[in-house]
Amino acid sequence: MKVGITASKSDDFSEWYTQVVLKAELADYAPVKGLIVLRPDGYSIWESIRTSLDVKLAARGVRNGFLPVLIPESLLGKEKEHFAGFNPEVFWVTHSGENKVGDRLALRPTSETLAYSLYSKWIKSWRDLPLRINFWNTALRAEIKSTKPFLRTSEFLWQEGHTVHACSEEAESEVAAILELYRETVEGDLAIPVITGRKSEKEKFVGAVYTTTMESMMPDGRALQMGTSHFLGQNFSRPFEVKFADKDNVEHFAWQTSWGLSWRLIGAMIMVHGDDKGLVLPPKVAPLQVVIIPISYSGEEGAQVLAAAEGMEAELLKAGIRARTDKREELTPGFKFHDWEMRGVPVRIEIGPRDLKDGSAVLATRHDGKKSKVPLDGAAVNIEEELCRVQTEMLGAAKRALDGMIHDASSYGALTKAVEGGGFVRAAWCGGLECEEKVKEETGADIRVVPEGGAEGACIVCGGRAASIPLFARGY
Amino acid sequence: MKVGITASKSDDFSEWYTQVVLKAELADYAPVKGLIVLRPDGYSIWESIRTSLDVKLAARGVRNGFLPVLIPESLLGKEKEHFAGFNPEVFWVTHSGENKVGDRLALRPTSETLAYSLYSKWIKSWRDLPLRINFWNTALRAEIKSTKPFLRTSEFLWQEGHTVHACSEEAESEVAAILELYRETVEGDLAIPVITGRKSEKEKFVGAVYTTTMESMMPDGRALQMGTSHFLGQNFSRPFEVKFADKDNVEHFAWQTSWGLSWRLIGAMIMVHGDDKGLVLPPKVAPLQVVIIPISYSGEEGAQVLAAAEGMEAELLKAGIRARTDKREELTPGFKFHDWEMRGVPVRIEIGPRDLKDGSAVLATRHDGKKSKVPLDGAAVNIEEELCRVQTEMLGAAKRALDGMIHDASSYGALTKAVEGGGFVRAAWCGGLECEEKVKEETGADIRVVPEGGAEGACIVCGGRAASIPLFARGY
Ligand SMILES: [Zn+2]
Ligand SMILES: [Zn+2]
Predict the structure, then answer these.
(1) From the CA of A68, how many Å to the nearest CA of chain B?
(2) Which numeric CATH code is attached to B13-273?
(3) pLDDT at residue B78, as a whole number
(4) Is the peptide bond prior to A31 cis by the omega test (within 30 degrees of 0)?
(5) Which residue in B has a C-alpha nearest to residue A127's C-alpha?
(6) Using a CB-CB distance cutoff of 8 angstroms, which residues of chain B are in contact with residue A40?
(7) Cross-chain CB nearest to A93 (options B64, B92, B157)
(8) CA–CA dist A366, B5 (Å, integer)
(9) In this complex, which of B32, B47, B122 lies closest to A105 when CB atoms are compared?
(10) Ligand nearest to the CA of A429
(11) CATH superfamily ID and name for A406-473
């Protein structure tokens, strides 16, 4: 395997993606088809997402819990529509040691059924509501298509939140608040802009009343679902008997929500920001934010350079910046530049003898390749600002790219043509399943998201009265 | 179910334990036998342990990663002795959807085999060493005996660390350093004293050269293993071909360690510190450290009391203390006292109209039931000190209890009698398997830990020359 990225993002997007994942050491394939492992840099990005979301969830009163991975078949099958949706991709445990287990055990494809069978025991009265619990775990859904790290794997890291409310209004406002909090995380930390709205009836979560979603567009013109928040109404509280007694001691079925996002966000981040040199990491989630490279090693001069590099590293660490000096003497500065560029480190500092003389260092930013001088004195403040600028500029650039990939179509012909070119296509729709299915069949595009607001004019498929203006696209 | 704990710790330890776990809402039973779920207070304690350990591990250069839960049977079977040890309790996946999977898939009982099959790809030269990765996940081992939350479950939360080194000395010193770091976590955060040393050959981890362990003693006289750190030597690097090229480009098999601790620490914490009123939590891991209870609600007076309570809550939160005011008007202060005592909150603050008048509040500590006055002004500093005192005293009390449960036996008769009475029994041993097995068969006691240092005199079983003075006990 050659060291650097040998595929071009524009020429062979899929091969480029795989090379970046493997060579930047974010992930690797596990021995079982469909499964991947995360190496420390990959997992560190997930930890950053987790920490950021945890803070926001805690502020809303959401607490974390733990659910086991095994769900008995009888329980998973309790909500029929839900079960039918997941059944084909469920992994089944049939034996423990030499013994056959009675009821087959499913590896959780999602935990609604398990969580709600417990909630029905835990919730007795209005005092117990709202109940808001989140679970950081994995979900398992057998993938028969070829493995794609972060995007198509049979086990994936995610969080699933499950809340219970006394009235539908509170539950619906929870659904919206969580989606907004997801958006803040994805735009704020991963620098990926998203479009929010609802899924169509056809595309909603099996068992939900409706699903809200945030969608983004990848550089290859295919849409990616970035997270969903579902209003479950009483669809689960009835079969699972999640009931509460109100202040007058009258029993009611509760109103519920569930919501989740997964490590596919990492896949999106790679695709949206990466380039032919490899990964480009937004500073907020970069495992290493600043790499310091001493340019000289020999003699007195080398010692001074190394001392300056280590001094800066200490200063940056003290300021809470994730920084490291690359002291590998056997490698050239040029090799190191390429290596850290491939790994997406947002800021590189070069310190050589000449820099030392005028008390400065060279600062290079990964996302735009620009170089500037930074004074050695008080470097932390400057570099902190620089990291902030990088984060902002990366989101800005991604926003411009997204905007450039949203097209309008006022006829079925225009829609077909636009879908072919990739990106989102905005077109009026009557809301009918037939029209949605015709588009899917003939163009391969789904309705990815129906933004808020009504529509005027006619459905571009059937000519009927338009009800909304969804975004169509081929998706991952 | 009655609200409070109805079983006595001294009369029916097992029933008491289960009631505390369920009524303090740490955990609950899942629908599948052998499995439990963690409710937010239970999971929060695990999160505290995780955070504390993560900081210490990061300081040693250990980073976190992710491994999938499915391991192919052929890979799990690669180290024969290891496989034979785990095989009887492995859950097997045989189907995904309607399709039979080829090679049966094991739910990870532990991840040595999976991790090392990857390490063999990742490690090429001395530059890649040492490699230190830790995984926070669950392990699955089918339990046929009755479920006991945190102590005997078929899936449990744990961490498993796997390191690789160029020489055996470095690996062995890693084994020791990790055990020390475990001890700091358990003694420092959970206030549980431990005894460290090695496991006997019979009790070591299957596949290890040797296992080091920390053991503690529960109030019912049974020992509990609190965490283990294994020196694997080259036992796994040979079958898994974990090799590295040294500076002269000569290939060597690497030296490895693995180590883990699990949520049974939470079980130990409940048993060691709890009392007939319920849970007693060490402040460092308590989800809620201080509960503030307003004593009056009515009229002008009530408003003043509530304002004072909320003022203190804000001050404590600002100081980083986990505090909350219990504003439930429909419940009496007495009910609340009992409720929070059952949940183990370390410090309770009571604020009533009379307290307000002299600018103070009543502070009650859970672990010793003592009450004192605390000035409302600058309460955070006082309460922070109080939490520190509680933490220290709880460890001190637990240390005294442990010391009181270590007995010496200088004859086989004395050993048998001492084992019967519960606790650790220290007795000279020749090191022979036969003597160890005789003790186990006739008394039910295992060798829990062999502390460092040699021994004089004779083995109390066979009269042969003593090699060490292990601690015998019946265990969990
Ligand atoms: Zn139509
Ligand atoms: Zn002997």
Answers:
(1) 6
(2) 3.30.930.10
(3) 86
(4) no
(5) B328
(6) 63-65, 133
(7) B92
(8) 60
(9) B32
(10) 1
(11) C-terminal domain of ProRS (3.30.110.30)
Per-domain residue ranges of chain A: 13-273, 290-387, 406-473
What is the structure's pLDDT at A102?
86
Do B257 and B163 contact (CB within 8 A), yes or no? yes
Q: Quote the mean pLDDT of chain A.
A: 96
How do beta strands A255-262 and A155-165 pair? Answer: antiparallel
B220: Cβ–Cβ under 8 A, 6 or more apart, which residues? B13, B271, B422
State the average pLDDT over residues B189-212: 97
Chain A positions in Cβ-Cβ contact with residue B90 (cut-off 8 Å): 96-97
B125: DSSP letter: B
Residues in chain B with CB shorter than 8 Å from the CB of A90 are 96-97
Report the separation in Å between the CA atom of A464 and the middle of ligand 1, taken as the mean of its atom positions: 5
Q: Hunting for tokens 């007195």 — which residue is that?
A: A300
Residue B286 to residue B270: CA distance in whole angstroms = 12
Separation between Cα atoms, residue B34 and residue A302, nearest integer Å: 62
Cα dihedral angle (A424, A429, A432, A436), rounded to 10 degrees? -30
Q: Which residues of B touch A116 (CB under 8 A)?
A: none
Which one of B28, B93, B103 makes the best mutation probe of the A interface by having the most chain A beta carbons within 10 Å? B93
Cα separation, B391 vs B280, in Å, equals 11
Measure Cα distances from A102 to A105, A109, B92, B95, B96 in Å: 9, 20, 13, 15, 18
Going by C-alpha positions, the residue among A196, A188, A190, A155 that lies closest to residue A268 is: A190
* % of chain B residues with pLDDT over 70: 100
The count of residues in chain A is 476
Residue A79 pLDDT grade (very low, low, confident, very high; cuts 50, 70, 90): confident
pLDDT tens for residues A423-473?
A: 999 999 999 999 999 999 999 999 999 999 888 899 999 999 999 999 999
- Nearest in space to B157 (alpha carbons), one of B38, B25, B280, B30: B38
Collapse the DSSP code of B325 into the 3-class scheme (helix H, G, I; strand E, B; otherwise coil) and give the result.
strand
Which residue do the tokens 């030392």 mark? Answer: A356
Whether B69 and A157 lie within 8 Å, measured CB to CB: no
Each residue's pLDDT tens digit, B441-460: 999 999 999 999 888 899 99
Would you tell me which CATH number, out of the four given (3.40.50.150, 3.40.50.300, 3.40.50.720, 3.40.50.800), belongs to the domain B290-387? Answer: 3.40.50.800
